[in-house]
Design goal:
The protein has about 300 residues and is α+β, with helices and mostly antiparallel strands. About 10% of the residues lie in helices and about 25% in strands.
């Protein structure tokens, strides 16, 4: 940021904005975020085996779809989370390779339950800009640190009964605890196995526990492939238990922290081949570790575009 831009930034930001953000009060975050019209089923069903979510009970769920030249159509590539009228949160690895970072090849679809059907509730938005974390280096480096992207639509996305915003984790709020149950949602593969390429036609959900990070760092679990900016979610013994899968990438890990608002605490990043394996929980980018990056990216977008 040059000196003139810095002066402009200091002039525009109020003292409350210039200090550490508190809750959802900074930079016009939606005040009614995280409120869904329906509550999910309380049973811990399997996302791999296709536990269908109640339609539109996760109104911030995004389908990030890319144009496939050969089939001349858009296809679901990754999930995402609507966190603001101007911003979708998803994973950086979804935009790796070829022309995947070209905004013209992407669209944002919301209000969906049936992935392969056109629904009256769905809303489609074209992409204006893609902000991939500047220190995301996969596949040049065999790691998925900083697996986070902010996507800006061409036009702001209004709220409706079928489209709404999830909250970001509250700054200074309670931390996630090992064993705490949160929810994963997406249209990812429902069969598992080495060759998993079949997406679910309906939005699925699973309730999974937060794994103790020390356990996740054990050599027989993920070892040095995980860092403190990640969350490990799931069970050590995965025989017949839920797990995120291909197509769920970029989608949210949603938790309630002692109140009714749903906060997106994680972004689905990686897991074992075949989606499910013993001692291999699903790994999510820890959203709370990137609050400053999210705020800085929004400011950069405001000043330079």
């Amino acid at each position: 940021m040059n000196f003139l831009a810095l002066l402009l930034l200091l002039a525009v930001l109020s003292p409350a904005d210039a200090v550490a953000f508190t809750g959802h009060q900074t930079l016009d975050w939606p005040q009614d975020c995280g409120v869904a019209p329906f509550y999910p089923s309380s049973s811990a069903e399997r996302i791999i085996q296709g536990s269908e979510a109640r339609p539109h009970s996760w109104p911030w769920q995004v389908s990030m779809q890319a144009w496939v030249q050969g089939s001349q159509r858009f296809v679901h590539v990754c999930g995402g989370t609507l966190i603001h009228p101007s911003w979708v949160l998803t994973a950086a690895h979804c935009f790796s390779g070829g022309k995947m970072d070209n905004v013209a090849n992407w669209r944002i679809v919301l209000g969906k339950h049936w992935l392969n059907q056109t629904e009256a509730t769905q809303r489609v938005h074209r992409v204006k800009r893609i902000y991939r974390h500047e220190h995301f280096h996969y596949p040049h480096l065999d790691q998925l640190n900083n697996d986070i992207v902010l996507v800006r639509p061409v036009h702001d996305i209004p709220s409706s009964p079928y489209v709404h915003y999830a909250c970001l984790p509250t700054s200074g709020g309670p931390a996630l605890k090992p064993g705490q149950l949160c929810w994963v949602t997406g249209w990812g593969g429902t069969q598992g196995g080495e060759e998993n390429s079949t997406l679910s036609n309906v939005l699925n959900q699973a309730q999974l526990p937060i794994m103790d990070f020390t356990t996740c760092q054990q050599e027989k679990v993920w070892g040095d492939k995980v860092s403190p900016t990640m969350l490990c979610v799931g069970f050590r013994d995965l025989q017949g238990t839920p797990a995120a899968c291909q197509g769920d990438s970029g989608g949210p890990l949603l938790c309630q922290m002692g109140k009714n608002e749903w906060e997106v605490h994680g972004i689905a990043s990686f897991g074992p081949i075949g989606c499910r394996a013993e001692n291999k929980p699903s790994v999510f980018t820890r959203t709370a570790s990137y609050r400053s990056w999210i705020e800085a990216t929004r400011i950069r977008d405001f000043f330079f575009y």
